[in-house]
Design goal:
Helix content: 55-70%
Distance between the termini: 29 Å
Low-confidence stretches: 1-10, 543-547
Structural class: alpha/beta
Strand order of the largest sheet: 5-4-3-6-10-8-11
Shape: globular
Amino acid sequence: MKKSSNTSLGDAAAQLEKQLTSPTVTLILASATIGAIVYMVFLLQPAYRGDLLPYLMVIVAELFLICHGIVSFWTILSGRFNPRNFNYHHAQNNLFNNPPESALELSKTPLYLNDKKVSVDVFIPVYGEAVSEINATALAARDMYGAHQTYILDDGKSDAVKDMAKRVGVGYIRRPTNNHAKAGNINYALTQTKGTYFIILDADFIADKHFIVETLPFFENKKVAFVQTPQYYSNQKNFVSTAAGFMQHVFYSLVQVGKNRFNAAFCVGTNVIFRRSAIEKIGGIYFQSKSEDIWTSLILHEQGYQSVYINKVLAIGKTPETIKAYSKQQLRWATGSFEIFLHKNPLFNKKLTVDQRIQYFATTAFYFNGFAVATLLLLPALQIFFNITPIALDIPFYQWALLYSGFYVTQIILSMYTMGGLKVETLMLSAASFPIYIKAFFNALFKRDEAWQATNRVDSYDSPFNYIRIQTYIFIFLLLTTAVGVWKSVYTSEFSVSIAWCALNTYIFGYFIFVAMRESSQMRRSTKKISKHNNRAPSYIKKEIKA
């Protein structure tokens, strides 16, 4: 992790907020919007139309990306306000009626809201994560400021976890069945506890001591159903974790902040605090989807409740480190979004405001970019193999490049400015992720279920190539296509920009395959070491490892 303290994380968040309110961001976003419109007008002019099939493919893919980009720009520009008002600060100042002299006693000091004593439960749902990882999360949750009760919700039914909970002094709840996965786990815990509010922390998220102090005051407004904080990751140490972490950083620092303005910020499943009465009113956490978080948010907003998102890091977790973990995570998230899009499309949901409809629609439609990327990947091959092109060949390359860059390059500039640099890994991982999103669409369409697994959990060697077969086939196809394109160019003495695009895509997927090969080799060595260690360990340690 680049920043070693919560103070530095707070400083980074403050700096980002300052950058977002800068006129420079407005200029970049305005330029990107104008560039998008100009490029769209260019694409739709019949005079520049090429062959019909690739032209229609470009129109569909590019229009989706442009329209989604414009909505994102609008959302980001809207994120320029502080959700903390006078009532919030007043409530925060009066959380503790009798503040103790020592900070060590704050974790047991009663909490008051609107002059009434309130109680808070902290839920840590677990399912097979390492005991040491759960232990660290439980200790941090236990020591948060403000009187509260911490519970480990163990769907893994591990005696080692139960013993650990007793040892560190937190509650332990094990339900009879594992029905409805994480949502069912939380709903069962709600029947066993009585807290006025409850916090959800995934097993790998270490909470800041000020979590309750920073979030609870928002509930002075009785319409607020939940307060969401960012997911921040400390394990950006390889290609996958760096790319995935930066990808999420963009969402939480830019997009989610803007959604807050429209009362459309949604729960992301962890680092969130709920009003119990609001959840009880809608019948509990939504359990008919693996993406229970966004579904629950949508239902709460339908009921007229408000949500709050604060761009302040109050818990630090771990992003996927392996291709398998990343693929499973993205598949789960994308499937949940597609389920809402297909079965409860927000655009036609009259219970939501117009702004909420647009925001939820943009969120649930986001993963269609997988189809857009797949479509655009095919275009160079069509030109190389069949001599058909989407754009009229008499258009000068510089003219097309200028129009194209007006929309896409400005997005890169925005990321570089607001995030202090551009992670090439993120662009590469995004491009290689489209098969996951296409699979997720058909999972949602045909209601296929996928088994859930803890992030970064390793039971035994499982080749990353089991999860990127399509990407491997695409690399081979692109490599052959590039070779044919080069041969054709030499034979005809004519160069086509399609060869350059195909070569670039070949490099991206080739590097992704290289990452998978390197990961596979590392995993083989790691599993051999773990196997040797387990065989040598005493019986009581083996029991804990197995748990």
